[in-house]
Amino acid sequence: IVFVNLGSGFTSYQYLVNQDFLTIEVDVPDIINEKKNRANKLIKEQILPKRETLYLSCDFNYSEQRVKLYKKIKKELNNSKHTFILMEGLLYYLPSDTTKKLLHNNQAIQFDNSITAFDYWKPTITKSLYYKGMLDFYKEEMKMDASSINLFYAKHIINSNCYDILEDTDVFKQEKKTTTILTL
How do residues 82-109 score in pLDDT, each as one tens digit? Predict the structure, then answer.
């Protein structure tokens, strides 16, 4: 399996499992450089196990960078039959067209029985108090407003000829599911 983490931020999933597999981490250059340096330092200090991780930088809003990125990823996959592509905390910050292009590109490099997973916010969130609080935070801390946030329904952007939606849930359903499991 190959794990591709698009918009990886400072997550460290490959260190949470006992198995070593190729992980491809992608984010903007500053984050990737800092993350790579931190990981190398912690591996050298034997705090983290050595993992096969390829760090790539890309600003997904630029098609030239995306094309170059996906060519590199495809080469690294080397016909791997199973890939898991994660886009966590990413798509709501990208324009709708970019989101659609990323999903298309993912489909183009994956074989059957591979998975792409992502989180997203549905347009109905705008009615929520959580959304108002989030917007206040974005305005104050990130100088963003509501027009900068991409809200959508997964079923409207997924090409059903390429992907099946295995699960479409939200944080409240997952919390309820987890609470139910914990109380059993």
Answer: 999 999 999 999 999 999 999 999 999 9
